[in-house]
Design a protein that fits this description.
Length: 223
């Protein structure tokens, strides 16, 4: 439960307003969405309170629409993660491609060595884009007070990347995840709980399929 005092203070910075029949999130009384760079504090990432398909998620998407996709590397990294968390796979992929474009072609992009372009370079854009790729393939939440977690697989897999695999992803709660997919469909997922951690209960979801797994230390489970 949130501390009422903290919640009251938060409301001084976080407001929801109506504009053109759509909900728009504004942070710190921001009134202009013309700037290409800064992303307001949008809770879908890295927070967990705003879930896809809700009015607040739609508000976040509308805000990102207004901000546009032209940005330097670190701001593009934020957009990749936010669109992925909103399950907007192709929007996230557009930002990822912009992140990987040669720096001379646009704002941001990357240098020949793939460092994020922003003299001398932006390592946060590299780290952030990598985190965004992980979010496109696997998303997780761990609720410490309830000793339970959630893992969502391929929530933002772009149509342009129908086949592939990734190993060694780390889910919240101390779980290592490997994901395999073909034809834009999950073929297999493997999960291994760290050997030094006690048992975990985690709900694993792929599209409409959900399974609750009781993890044991060091044991691999297959979905």
């Amino acid at each position: 439960m949130q501390d009422p005092a903290i919640f009251k203070k938060k409301n001084k910075f976080f407001t929801i307003v109506e504009k053109a029949d759509e909900v728009i999130i504004r942070f710190c009384c921001r009134t202009s969405f013309n700037g290409p760079l800064h992303v307001p504090s949008l809770s879908p990432y890295p927070g967990r309170d705003i879930k896809p398909g809700t009015p607040l998620a739609d508000a976040c998407a509308r805000t990102l629409d207004l901000l546009g996709e032209e940005a330097t590397g670190w701001a593009l990294a934020w957009r990749i993660n936010l669109w992925a968390r909103l399950h907007k796979a192709d929007r996230a992929f557009v930002c990822l491609k912009k992140q990987l474009c040669p720096a001379s072609e646009q704002i941001g992009g990357c240098y020949p060595n793939l460092f994020g372009a922003h003299p001398p370079f932006q390592i946060d854009s590299n780290f952030g884009a990598t985190a965004g790729i992980a979010e496109m393939l696997m998303q997780s939440r761990w609720y410490v007070s309830e000793n339970r977690g959630e893992i969502h697989l391929l929530s933002a897999l772009p149509e342009s990347l129908p086949d592939g695999f990734i190993t060694g992803l780390r889910a919240q709660g101390g779980i290592t995840v490997s994901v395999y997919f073909a034809g834009a469909e999950l073929t297999k997922a493997e999960f291994t709980l760290d050997s030094h951690i006690s048992g975990r209960e985690v709900k694993v979801t792929y599209k409409e399929s959900t399974r609750t797994i009781q993890f044991k230390p060091g044991k691999t489970e297959v979905f």
